[in-house]
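Tokens as discussed.
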């Protein structure tokens, strides 16, 4: 402890001065926001040590003084600070309702209770309905935004961040000259029950309730656990109420009474800034004692008497690393993380100071209010970086809440031409509330805004486009309020996107001909695509060709491979190469029936007593026609036959004497048009 050396005589003066009546008024605090709470208020509960200063920073009237003109605001939001005990009555069993349509629940009394309630609010837990265990609990999710705090979080973890905003100190208050000066060792022995009397004065130690941060802090400072507390240590005052860390009335009444308290609260009450909770005790002889932490014979007073009768906090005492302490506001860690989907801009702007931003609680007006309430302003007000020694992180403080982080998710990265399709899914285990996703190129540079992108649990994939060719690494963490899973990493090689341009040589090719499709593979890089392009009719490959040095090719497709005549659509597909992605393009045309040629071999003269034999050959490009050939003499059919190999010989009926014009008629097929031809035969 850095000592401001004060002689025994000087110490007595300070004590005597402190023992004079406090300059207090009897005006009520009216600190609770009440039923008028709105969605644009950040709700805080917890420590009674910082409740008065937070009430003032919220713009409330505190001990008759309105702080509306210096109320802390950010982004249209203000603070709504609920006292640790009910204003006016001091009740520790009252309920609060922090949202207009929200549930009623037990007022959190103390820093520990505040962190517990905040844990339930941010993680969807249940908090006590009342002081009676038989009344059960109620869900209070999203009912609290911050917890006033005076001690380090009690559970390890990262879910909560305690952001410091001022400096306080914890000393002891007592009555009786025998307790005017004490060592740290004496305090240890008093609270373990080993030291029960000093100079003939019986010692009666008090300590705040178990939810009080000051109790936690004080016990740690003097090296006493809950289990080591002496049986003579009382947690109820002379009025039967829980001992508070900012009140001496009904606690310090007799010589030998002693209790730990916040020095800043004592100073604020003495100076009339905070509501009176101690003047009766001080009038009766209560004082704050001087402390020797190192048993060196040098005692340090926690306060300094000013010439005008007011007190000031002794910066030397407050700077001590054992009995001096940071007071803070605890928030959800992810609520002040700008990269999180749970980020709360207003909460961040009120409480957090970083390189480019000053917390509203760190403004000149706010600092003036903080100092008025006995706290020391600090240069690290609003610092939330966990590497800073003044910043404390902790886990959820409700044992009924899971502290598990999710298991690593499964991740798939599917590359395309200049694209990357991502998908992920949770593993079995802890519930996932969000995913942290990074995508990096081969140099480690972030891609597509995925430097460390947080997305809600309902988002299980993403698509990136416009990517250059190269290898990409995707890393995904599954997260919840307790932290991140182990990372799952996937890599994928993206190729340059290509485009296929395809043009058919004929809009209506005849069946049996070959349709030529001119293909060009487009690309955005310097290298020309290589490899092959192929034509598919449905799932059947019907043609292919190799790209030339310009990235072009002609694919030839026999129309006979396309089935029946009619409209046809081919898929022209480029298979890609080592640097270029595959791509495709459809091309359409209509295959029409082939036009045949008829070749007829027949005699020019035949006896009227004989049957003439006529040979008909039907030919068409690229196909062998099938079907039936009929021969007519006028309107009378005189013969018919079926093509075989495109040819048929038909023996016709006898012809009467004379010259006859015969019509040779090919009826066509599904692929070939009909055709007819006339010949002349003379019958004699």
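Sequence:
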């Amino acid at each position: 402890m850095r000592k401001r050396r004060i002689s025994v005589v000087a110490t007595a003066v300070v004590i005597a001065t402190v023992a004079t009546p406090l300059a207090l008024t009897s005006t009520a605090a009216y600190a609770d926001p009440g039923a008028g709470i709105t969605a644009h208020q950040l709700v805080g509960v917890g420590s009674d040590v910082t409740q008065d200063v937070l009430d003032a920073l919220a713009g409330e009237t505190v001990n008759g003084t309105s702080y509306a003109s210096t109320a802390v605001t950010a982004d249209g939001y203000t603070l709504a600070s609920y006292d640790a005990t009910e204003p006016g009555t001091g009740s520790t069993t009252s309920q609060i309702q922090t949202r207009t349509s929200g549930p009623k629940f037990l007022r959190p009394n103390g820093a520990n209770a505040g962190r517990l309630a905040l844990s339930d609010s941010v993680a969807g837990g249940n908090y006590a309905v009342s002081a009676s265990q038989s009344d059960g609990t109620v869900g209070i999710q999203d009912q609290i935004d911050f917890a006033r705090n005076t001690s380090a979080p009690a559970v390890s973890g990262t879910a909560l961040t305690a952001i410091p905003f001022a400096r306080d100190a914890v000393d002891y208050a007592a009555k009786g000259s025998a307790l005017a000066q004490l060592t740290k060792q004496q305090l240890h022995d008093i609270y373990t029950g080993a030291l029960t009397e000093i100079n003939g004065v019986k010692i009666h130690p008090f300590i705040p309730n178990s939810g009080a941060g000051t109790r936690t802090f004080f016990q740690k400072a003097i090296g006493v656990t809950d289990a080591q507390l002496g049986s003579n240590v009382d947690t109820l005052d002379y009025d039967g109420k829980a001992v508070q860390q900012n009140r001496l009335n009904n606690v310090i009444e007799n010589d030998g009474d002693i209790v730990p308290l916040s020095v800043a609260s004592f100073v604020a009450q003495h100076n009339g800034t905070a509501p009176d909770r101690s003047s009766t005790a001080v009038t009766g002889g209560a004082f704050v004692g001087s402390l020797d932490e190192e048993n060196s014979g040098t005692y340090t007073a926690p306060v300094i008497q000013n010439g005008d009768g007011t007190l000031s906090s002794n910066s030397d005492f407050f700077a001590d690393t054992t009995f001096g302490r940071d007071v803070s506001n605890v928030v959800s860690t992810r609520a002040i993380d700008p990269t999180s989907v749970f980020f709360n801009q207003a909460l961040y702007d009120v409480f957090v100071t970083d390189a480019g931003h000053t917390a509203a609680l760190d403004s000149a007006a706010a600092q003036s209010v903080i100092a008025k309430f006995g706290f020391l302003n600090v240069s690290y007000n609003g610092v939330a970086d966990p590497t800073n020694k003044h910043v404390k992180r902790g886990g959820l403080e409700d044992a009924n809440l899971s502290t598990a982080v999710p298991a690593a998710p499964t991740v798939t990265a599917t590359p395309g031409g200049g694209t990357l399709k991502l998908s992920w899914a949770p593993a079995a285990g802890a519930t996932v509330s969000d995913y942290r996703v990074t995508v990096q190129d081969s140099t480690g540079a972030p891609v597509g805004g995925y430097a460390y992108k947080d997305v809600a649990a309902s988002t299980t994939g993403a698509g990136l486009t416009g990517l250059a060719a190269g290898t990409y690494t995707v890393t995904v963490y599954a997260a919840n309020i307790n932290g991140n899973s182990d990372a799952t990493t996937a890599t994928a090689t993206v190729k340059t996107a290509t485009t296929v341009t395809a043009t058919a040589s004929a809009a209506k090719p005849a069946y049996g001909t070959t349709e030529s499709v001119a293909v060009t593979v487009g690309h955005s890089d310097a290298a020309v695509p290589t490899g092959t392009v192929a034509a598919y009719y449905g799932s059947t490959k019907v043609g292919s060709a190799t790209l030339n040095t310009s990235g072009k090719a002609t694919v030839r497709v026999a129309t006979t491979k396309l089935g029946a005549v009619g409209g046809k659509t081919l898929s022209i597909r480029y298979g890609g190469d080592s640097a270029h992605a595959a791509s495709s393009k459809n091309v359409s045309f209509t295959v029409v029936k082939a036009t045949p040629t008829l070749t007829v071999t027949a005699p020019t003269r035949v006896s009227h007593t004989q049957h003439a034999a006529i040979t008909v050959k039907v030919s068409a490009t690229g196909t062998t026609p099938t079907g039936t050939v009929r021969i007519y003499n006028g309107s009378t059919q005189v013969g018919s036959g079926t093509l075989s190999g495109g040819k048929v010989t038909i023996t016709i009926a006898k012809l009467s004497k004379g010259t006859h014009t015969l019509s040779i008629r090919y009826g066509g097929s599904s692929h070939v048009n009909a055709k007819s031809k006339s010949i002349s035969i003379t019958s004699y």
